[in-house]
Amino acid sequence: MENSTEARAKLTPNAAAKPAVPTTLSGKLRAKLPSRGWMIFWTTFGTIGGLVVRDHYLTVDAKKRIADKVDVLAKQSCGVQDMPRKVTVYITAPPGDGIHKTRHYFKAFVKPVFDAAAVDYEVKEGLVEGQIQAMVAADVRKKRRIAAGKQSALSEAEQSAPIVPLKSVSDGIVVLGRIALAEVLQGYNDGCLQSLDDPEPVVVAEKVEEVSIKDEAASLATEATGSVEATGSVEATTSMNKSEDTSASTEAAVAAAAAELVAAAATAAKDGEKKEEEKPPAPIPIPQDEAYFSVPPSGLEPVGYIPFKNLTGFRNFHKKVFALFNSYDCVEYAGASVMKVAFAETKEFEKDDLEIGRDEEPLFKKYRGPVEINILDRVREQVKLYVTPENIPELKKIDEEVVVEEQH
Q1: Bias regions of kind Basic and acidic residues — which residues (predicted)?
Q2: Which of 257, 283, 304, 382 is disulfide-compatible with 174, CB 3.0–4.6 A?
Q3: What are the tens digits of pLDDT across the range 326-338?
């Protein structure tokens, strides 16, 4: 009986063998670990999460260190009639990409330093190539015209206003990337060489063609029926073979169709005229020559260059991933460049400085060639470049007792 019971237990399919209890330490640890799929998931999740947290911590720390250095400028006293320092920021779209990349770079890495240093700024965007160059040239020419007495420093609204409000005047230019730097310097060159006299407007004689409604109706009727001769032959045949009522109804139908076509043509002509009127007139080129050369009395504004390397293409994918988890690097080297502008320490713009930003060109060589800067030496000699200050000033602390004594 015992043998038959053992044999029956062996033949039963639902009889499951009891798992062996691990006796070694490694076996006990292996029994506590999750499955292979869960191990892969938690390892990937923990690695990416750790890199994100690390980058966030280092980015916040880098921003705080830079903000502490420029905070001394924000705490300096300002007079009642004084306005905060202001700079003009020029940004443009990187080749092969949209301008949103430059906007994000400015807001993430440049703007916080300006805010910490209490420096006002005005952002001007160049949506097409050459737009920044034209804006800078127009600004330089305007200053030259004001100095020559050919233009008023106040606008028409300010001239008619009883009180002119105080406003900050830009005393520096900030560019993001080598392309914007090249356009600003070319704008300086054009603005110093342009004539101060406005060019005479070109008068274009308008040719007005007077066409009678009958001719338009005839031409439109011709287009509708095929040809004039065919229409005449058909009318002759119908007048001989048909009655007067039939011919009158045919003529009325043709006249109504011609009138509709004339009305449609007139409406289209009016719409075309409106569209032509809405188009802005083409800008009149201003003559420029070295004989017109002059510099505004206030001089040309110093230029601050901020590196901007835009990674595009599949070949730079690994660099994009690295930059995604190491954005604190951008905070440090972009913040160091913005600090130069904040402390406003400058030097002469030398010929070697024209090569600034050459390391950006390999990133966009697929979309455009190298960026060359061609300006006159006497224009370059008038330009200043922001540099790193040798000694960062410290805030002068005044004892509260001295302030109280002065007030009494």
Answers
A1: 270-280
A2: 304
A3: 888 889 889 989 9
- Paired strand residues for 14: none
Q: For residue 383, what pLDDT is reported?
A: 92
For residue range 107-163, what is the model confidence (pLDDT) as tens digits? Answer: 999 999 999 999 999 999 988 888 999 999 999 998 988 888 887 777 767 667 777
- Domain annotation covers residue 145: yes
Task: Give Cα 189 to chain centroid, integer Å.
Answer: 23
Q: Tell me, yes or no, whether 176 and 325 share the same domain.
A: yes
DSSP 353: G
In terms of domains, do 67 and 149 share one? yes
**How many C-beta neighbours within 10 Å does residue 313 have?**
13
| β-sheet with 303-306: strand ranges across | 120-126, 86-92, 170-176, 303-306, 384-386, 346-348
Q: Which residue has the tokens 């030398």?
A: 350
Q: 374-388: per-residue pLDDT in tens?
A: 888 889 999 999 998
Give first-to-last CA distance, the chain, whole Å: 118
What single letter denotes the amino acid at residue 206? E
Residue whose tokens read 């009180």: 163
Q: Where does a domain end: 221, 247, 275? A: 275
Span 148-171, pLDDT tens digits = 888 777 776 766 777 766 677 788
E-state strands within 30-112: 86-92
